[in-house]
Amino acid sequence: MQPRRLITRGVAPTVLLVCVIGLWEALVKINDVPAYLFPAPTDVGHEFLHRHELLAASVVTGREIVIGYLAAVLAALGFAVAMHASKLCRQAFYPLLVVSQTVPTVLLAPILVVAFGFGLTPKLIVIALVCFFPIVVNAYDGLQSADADRVRMLMSLHGTPWLRFRKLDVPMALPAAFSGARVAATYAAVAAVFAEWTGSQAGLGFVILQAGPSLETATIVAAVLILAVMALALSGVVSALQRLLIPWSTEVRHA
Amino acid sequence: MAVDIAVENVSARYDDSLVLNSVSFSVAAGERIGIVGRSGVGKSTLLGIISGLDEPESGRVQVGDTSDPAGRLAHCVVMPQADCLLPWRNALENAVLALENQGLSRRAARAEADALFVHLGLDGAQERTPNQLSGGMRQRVAFARTVLARKPVLLLDEPFGALDTITRYELQDWLRGYLLEAPSTVVLVTHDIEEALVLCDRVLVFSVAGSLTEIAGFGSTATPRSDLISDSAFLARRRTVLEEL
């Protein structure tokens, strides 16, 4: 996208956001709503500036999100390739993968805590499980998407199954795989919070859990905003990578 | 070196219906034959079978000295109707796919493709991506890709079917010039009778009833296309093909 268009497109939502925040602040102040019931944006801002444990908690949760997400990407791509390459793998795994989606993965967190303790491992597993599905399904569908004409063309150009995989199947799969990865990126933050709720001594989920009973509502809002920014940032990085690595991807979708 | 093709009593199905019923014909080494017929008579199916990408239900196909599918595929290259260019590669990278697949160095592949690009009027378009090329240019890149497979048999499936009339005529002209010099054996599937007669030495007409008629074409005549298509002999043969269809 051109910088100018990007700026023009950014203007409308920014103006709207500023208006909403202004209205929010005004309503809270005019009606004199106490901060524990509904904090004003300035109360939340105050939390950002003065509650230093938010930074430490963000580092903890951010690390969980990044590691868990990367694990999900690697595992999902591995599974997608295995299912693409082997009919047996596909027949064995694909139906189970679909059915597994009816299990609310985040609710597995308590079980994982029992099995793996209160450390990093159960959190990473929950995040990875939540992010895994959209990536594996999209990547697999993408790998299967090469049209018969292109496959026949490539095979008649001294092609081999390996060359077909490298030069046709993988590039064809990238746009879909990136779509899945972008969706998964937005799930990762939520998964991290759920994982932390089941047993942790640190992280934004822990901060939210602690702040609830003591009515520190502004802290909760601040933590939620940080989580939203993290999800946006991760999804932004994935989008940027997509534009960088496969600038042609919009054309494939239109073809 | 060109190779010959023998198709003997080939029958095949497409989506469960019999499209080829005991078809037999042969193509001499270096000969250019056109296959004409209405949609659904099995023209493309036949190309798939000759190439070794598909197997017939019954019958036998021999290409050069071999009749097994892998051997046939080693001799044949297929050019489908859609240009099938890969959008993540520029024109040149698309054209050198076969050379790359054979392990040729990038530089050697590029040198070979550059010469062909000049010959095909594509010079200067090497670095363009497929979406920056016109329909005619895309088809010529696809043809370059086909030729650079350096196989003795070219199987062309409606290569100009998706183009507008003027571009189609232009491309038929240069293909005619190209084929006159090339030693390749060519099987051209088309539903354009004129195209088949202009480009090929012999035209096989597949009727809906399943019969196969051979009619001589004008592929080796030096007469320019514009004169040829108004020639009375050409018009008479065109009428014959139409009647057979």
Automatic annotation (TrEMBL), chain A:
Compartments reported by the entry: Cell membrane
Segments forming domain ABC transmembrane type-1: 50-238
Species annotation: freshwater metagenome
Regions that span the bilayer: 7-27, 65-85, 92-118, 124-143, 217-241
Keyword terms: Cell membrane, Membrane, Transmembrane, Transmembrane helix, Transport
Protein name: Unannotated protein
Membrane topology reported for the UniProt record: Multi-pass membrane protein
InterPro entries: MetI-like, MetI-like_sf
Keyword Aminoacyl-tRNA synthetase on entry: no
Gene3D superfamilies per the UniProt record, alphabetical: MetI-like
Major subcellular site: membrane
UniProt-listed PANTHER family: ABC TRANSPORTER PERMEASE PROTEIN HI_0355-RELATED (PTHR30151:SF20), ALKANE SULFONATE ABC TRANSPORTER-RELATED, MEMBRANE SUBUNIT (PTHR30151)
Keyword Oxidoreductase applies: no
One Gene Ontology term, aspect cellular component: plasma membrane
Gene Ontology biological process terms from the UniProt entry: transmembrane transport
TrEMBL record, chain B:
GO molecular function ontology, one term from the record: ATP hydrolysis activity
Matching Pfam families: ABC_tran
ABC transporter domain: residues covered: 5-233
Keywords tagged on the record: ATP-binding, Nucleotide-binding, Transport
SMART domains reported for this sequence: AAA
InterPro entries tied to this protein: AAA+_ATPase (IPR003593), ABC_transporter-like_ATP-bd (IPR003439), ABC_transporter-like_CS (IPR017871), ABC_transporter_ATP-bind (IPR050166), P-loop_NTPase (IPR027417)
Gene3D superfamilies for the chain: P-loop containing nucleotide triphosphate hydrolases
PROSITE patterns for this protein: ABC_TRANSPORTER_1, ABC_TRANSPORTER_2
Protein name: Unannotated protein
